[in-house]
From TrEMBL:
This is N-acetyltransferase domain-containing protein. It holds the Pfam family Acetyltransf_1. Keywords: Acyltransferase, Transferase. Residues 5-152 form the N-acetyltransferase domain. PROSITE patterns: GNAT (PS51186). InterPro entries: Acyl_CoA_acyltransferase, GNAT_dom.
């Protein structure tokens, strides 16, 4: 399945798919953008880089990264539709994004995830370690972990 997967920079035309994918992964520990206008704003935000994950010609996932001051890349979102999960696509996307951000000059990368989220194992396999813990995060009251990694070293 994963051989046919590639990333494409999102445009406003992808906003409907963006929302469909976000809704498909929504859960009490994963609060998402469910409004098409908001999705369009996120896609067009000049401070964010949003890619759609394509399987053949279908958008099956999305990934969003922000380049922050201090050569730091923040992985704001990664989502793969449930039907396509567990086939290595998310791992490939993460590897590609790490390489892209390294080429763009980022020295470190971080993300936030709920401590109960299974995705934590995926991030650990890709070199992220827990570097912080946020007890209170907006709409969700359960704690979230900050996970980070350096980008200068060779990829795993
Ligand atoms: C996390 C996610 C992007 C990974 O994509 P994927 O294509 O399933 O990933 P891969 O097949 O390369 O790797 C499998 C690993 O992903 C994670 N994973 C798989 N399904 C998951 C799910 N429903 N929710 C969270 N993590 C999941 C696990 O760590 C899994 O490893 P394991 O089988 O050893 O537990 C995808 O599962 C997803 O969109 N999950 C729901 C949204 C989410 O939780 N996003 C992360 C927010 S921080």
């Amino acid at each position: 399945m994963k051989a046919k997967v590639r990333l494409k920079r999102a445009t406003a035309r992808d906003a409907d798919d963006y929302v469909r994918i976000e809704r498909s992964v929504e859960s009490p520990i994963n609060l998402v953008t469910t409004n098409v206008d908001e999705a369009r704003k996120e896609i067009e935000n000049p401070l964010a880089l949003v890619w759609m994950v394509l399987y053949e010609t279908k958008n099956v996932g999305l990934v969003q990264v922000q380049m922050l001051p201090g050569k730091h890349a923040y992985l704001a979102e990664i989502a793969i539709e449930p039907t396509y999960q567990g086939h290595g696509i998310g791992g490939d996307v993460l590897r590609t994004i790490v390489a892209k951000m390294r080429r763009a000059g980022a020295c470190t990368m971080s993300l936030r995830t709920h401590e109960q989220n299974r995705a934590r194992q995926l991030y650990e396999r890709h070199g992220f370690v827990v570097t912080g813990r946020l007890e209170d995060h907006g709409k969700s009251s359960s704690p979230r972990l900050v996970m980070s990694r350096k980008l200068q070293t060779e990829e795993r």
